[in-house]
Every structure is written in C-alpha cells, then in structure tokens.
Write a structure and sequence with these properties.
Number of helices: 6
Number of strands: 3
Number of domains: 1
Shape: globular
CATH class: Alpha Beta
Distance between the termini: 30 Å
Structural class: mainly alpha
Largest sheet: 3 strands, antiparallel
Order of helices and strands: HHHHEEEHH
Radius of gyration: 16 Å
Oligomer: single chain
Bound molecules: zinc ion
Length: 125
Amino acid sequence: MRECSAAEKRNVQQMVCGTRTIKMMDYRHRIEESKKRLPLPKLMKLQGDADAAFKIAPCPFHDDENPSFSVWRSGRGQWFWKCHAGCGQGDEIDYLAMKLGMEKGEAIKEFLQLAGLWWINKTEV
Ligand SMILES: [Zn+2]
C-alpha cells in the first residue's frame, strides 16, 4: 500500500472533525482511518476473540490444540494475523470476513460501520 500524500493526510485530519469533510474522504482513507480507530486486537476483543489476540494463541477458526494463531504489528504499524495451520491470514478486514463468513466487500462495509465511518446521513452534506 502506498504512503499517503501530505494533502491526503490533511484530509484525513479534517474528516475526523466535521461531517462535511468526511464526505470527501475516499474509500481507501476511510479504511485506513478505521484501522486506526479499530486496530485488530480491539476488533477481535469486540468480536469475542480477545483470547486469540496474542503473538501465539489458539486459533479462533479451528479446533486448535497446539496454538497456531498469531497476531502481530508490522514495522509500519499495521496489524496482521495468521493461522499457521492454514485457516488464513490478513488484516482486520480479512479477519472480519472469516469471522462473520462474509465476502470481502461486505466485510469492508461491516468494518467501516463498526469504526463509525460508514455513512452518514446524506442530508448533512
Ligand atoms: Zn486456524
């Protein structure tokens, strides 16, 4: 994923302040902002998987006798998870898709809703 430009970062700042500007934030930035508001461990806690939000933990997606699930944060500050037994891996959205049995597009919508960044009354524009 590319870095945000200075102008885009300013937009992200603004959109948190007012509904009017929130409208202008594009999809990608809404997802980035949602990841800041609801990082993977917090999201997992919300979904009842607090016990799995560790570097080594039992996988929440399969019957796991030897802990094969990992949650970690990359050098760039993004959170990831992986089941070493093969359930899957990814970010917050992949986790939600897996957890709730959703397509990726639905999971993105769900994630933005949980983070409070899925729209927003049209009359407010
Ligand atoms: Zn697994």
